[in-house]
Design brief:
- The chain is of the alpha+beta class.
- It is elongated and about 205 Å long.
- The strands form six sheets. A five-stranded antiparallel sheet has the order 3-2-1-4-5.
- Helix content is 19%, strand content 37%.
- The termini are far apart.
- The chain has six domains: 32-96, OB fold (Dihydrolipoamide Acetyltransferase, E2P); 113-183, Nucleic acid-binding proteins (OB fold (Dihydrolipoamide Acetyltransferase, E2P), Beta Barrel); 197-270, Nucleic acid-binding proteins (OB fold (Dihydrolipoamide Acetyltransferase, E2P)); 278-357, Nucleic acid-binding proteins (OB fold (Dihydrolipoamide Acetyltransferase, E2P), Beta Barrel), CATH 2.40.50.140; 365-444, Nucleic acid-binding proteins (OB fold (Dihydrolipoamide Acetyltransferase, E2P), Beta Barrel), CATH 2.40.50.140; 453-570, OB fold (Dihydrolipoamide Acetyltransferase, E2P).
Length: 570
């Protein structure tokens, strides 16, 4: 008996095989990686997604962009990390899925330095979070702009161009920069600017920064320097006098340095140069009026017209006064008259004279006050070295302390004079070049030392009273207020260490004049010489007395002999 071979299986064609295989694949559970999922539920915090497993996966609502609209039934891409987690749920991530989908695009933009449009989502510590290609990237605060940003929050919600500057696949980190784009744009603008700009161009700009030496002007991404000296033809102490931050101004290009990418600007160059024709307007010797705008140690600057200033040097302020600082005669804002002394157009300088605007009181001084003449004046100033005497307005003479008295030692002229006192003096000399007149008071009387030297020449004897006892000698009073000095070695009395031991004030001494020094005005006397001379005279007299009897006897004998001779003859 033949056994039943069972049902016969007919071979399947290729189409049927592919169909069965597809059905099998559809029934196979998803593997770890990028998968499709369907939203089945949305709560306040979570989104439940069916990824074709026994259990659903849960996504935090924060994984979706704030502007992303979702609803139940939507199909989304998620990254399946684990088929079944600790809680029995599928472990899924939308952020990872989004990152994987755009990774190649981001990587390509990074390698090609391509700009990307990104929307600023929110502010975070250290910068901003930006949405690019549907994923979040970090924009550091230092990469937002080329200059410090006042308020980062102002960028939230805005779409800005950024460039990927750092990628980390493992950490899924993307760092972007807006600054590199701005820097490149600025460099391109700068390149175009320096290719086209030339000296003489008039440009419009905005005052960006003000310093002591000038102002920086934003010419549309390019900064130019407007130096303080190129702001006005007139004097400016600080740029803030005519400019303020944010001012829109027109400026002229006066220098272009393409090698160092610098441009110098001028504001005053937009107006006519006031120094043109200056020599015709301000001829030498012309009398001018102006306002004092500045005072320095060496002089005063006078504004003659807008942009034109002249300097009155301190030496040109007065014919007679010794001016130490211009503030002694004027203050800022004063209107003064002066004479043009010199004009230098190239150096833009005008020299003015204040004293030249009034007559020179010294013009005929040499004739009016010749040497040897007597004059009268008022004391205007007293110093340690002498007194200044005003002979007339603008003309003063100096009475030096050494010319006040022949005999009195003056420590300070205030001992003798007071300010405002009128005195009579003698003109000793006139120096027209230095504008000095030397006066003398003692010269109104004869020099007592010369009179003394005539009456009591060296070698003569004199009697004088002790005026002062010094350790090294004695001062004695002489005629006409003179004093003489007797050195210790010329004192007669012995056995003393100092003159006060043997002499007293008021005592009269017999002295011999041994020296008269006109230059040093010294009279030196000697007591020892006097007595030495007296002793010598006495000794001589004694010798003469001893010789007298001998002479008489010899005379008698001679007479007797003569008488005898006469008797014999008789």
């Amino acid at each position: 008996m033949k056994e039943d071979a069972g049902p016969v299986v007919e071979p399947m064609d290729d189409g049927e095989l592919e169909k069965l295989l597809a059905e099998y694949i559809e029934k196979e559970e998803p593997k770890v990686g990028l998968v499709k999922g369907k939203i089945v539920k949305i709560t306040d915090k979570e989104v439940v997604v069916n990824v074709g497993l026994k259990s659903e996966g849960i996504l935090a609502l924060s994984e979706f962009n704030e502007d992303e609209e979702i609803k139940v039934g939507d199909e989304i891409d998620v990254y399946l990390e684990d088929l079944e987690g600790d809680e029995g749920l599928a472990q899924i991530s939308k952020k990872k899925a989004d990152f994987l989908k755009v990774w190649d695009d981001i990587k390509e933009c990074y390698s090609e330095n391509r700009n990307i449009e990104g929307k600023v989502l929110r502010r975070v510590k250290g910068g901003l979070m930006v949405n690019i290609f549907g994923v979040e990237a970090f924009l550091p605060g230092s990469q937002i702009d080329v200059k410090p940003v006042n308020s980062i929050d102002d960028f939230v919600g805005k779409v800005i161009p950024v460039r990927v500057i750092k990628l980390n696949w493992k950490r899924k980190n993307i760092v972007v920069s807006r600054r590199v784009i701005l820097e490149e744009e600025k460099e391109e603008e700068k390149k175009k600017f320096f290719e086209s700009v030339k000296e003489g161009d008039v440009l419009e700009g905005v005052v960006k920064n003000i310093t002591e030496f000038g102002a920086f002007i934003d010419l549309g991404g390019i900064d130019g320097l407007l130096h303080v000296t190129d702001m006005s033809w007139g004097r400016i102490a600080h740029p803030s006098e005519i400019l303020a931050m944010g001012d829109k101004i027109k400026v002229k290009v006066i220098r272009v340095d393409r090698e160092h990418e610098r441009v110098s600007l001028g504001l005053k160059q937009l107006e006519p140069n006031p120094w043109e024709g200056i020599e015709e307007r301000y001829t030498i010797g012309k009398r001018v009026k102006g306002r004092v705008v500045s005072l320095t140690d060496y002089g005063a600057f006078i504004e003659l017209e807008k942009g034109i200033e002249g300097l009155i040097h301190v030496s040109e302020m007065s014919w007679t006064q010794h001016i130490q600082h211009p503030s002694e005669l004027m203050k800022i804002g004063d209107i003064v008259e002066a004479i043009v002394l010199e004009v230098n157009k190239e150096e833009q300088r005008i020299s003015l004279g204040l004293r030249q605007a009034i007559p020179d009181p010294w013009k005929d001084v040499e004739k009016k006050y010749p040497a040897g003449s007597k004059v009268e004046g008022k004391i205007t100033n007293i110093t340690s070295f002498g007194v200044f005497v005003e002979l007339e307005e603008g003309v003063e003479g100096l009475l030096h302390v050494s010319d006040i008295s022949w005999t009195r030692r003056i420590g300070h002229p205030r001992e003798v004079f007071k300010k405002g006192q009128r005195i009579e003096c003698k003109v000793l000399s006139v120096d027209m070049e230095k504008r000095r007149i030397a006066l003398g008071l003692k010269q109104l009387e004869p020099d007592p030392l010369k009179i003394f030297s005539r009456r009591h020449p060296v070698g003569s004897n004199i009697r004088a009273k002790v005026a002062e006892l010094l350790p090294r000698g004695i001062l004695v009073e002489l005629e006409r207020g003179l004093k003489g000095f007797v050195p210790f070695s010329h004192l007669e009395r012995r056995g003393m260490k100092v003159p006060a031991e043997k002499y007293s004030e008021g005592e009269e001494l017999n002295l011999k004049v041994i020296e008269i020094n006109q230059k040093g005005r010294n009279i030196v006397l000697s007591e020892t010489r006097y007595y030495e001379e007296q002793r010598a005279k006495e000794e001589k007299a004694e010798k003469e007395e001893l010789k007298e009897p001998e002479k008489e006897s010899k005379g008698v004998e001679k007479k007797a002999e003569q008488e005898k001779k006469e008797e014999k003859k008789g």
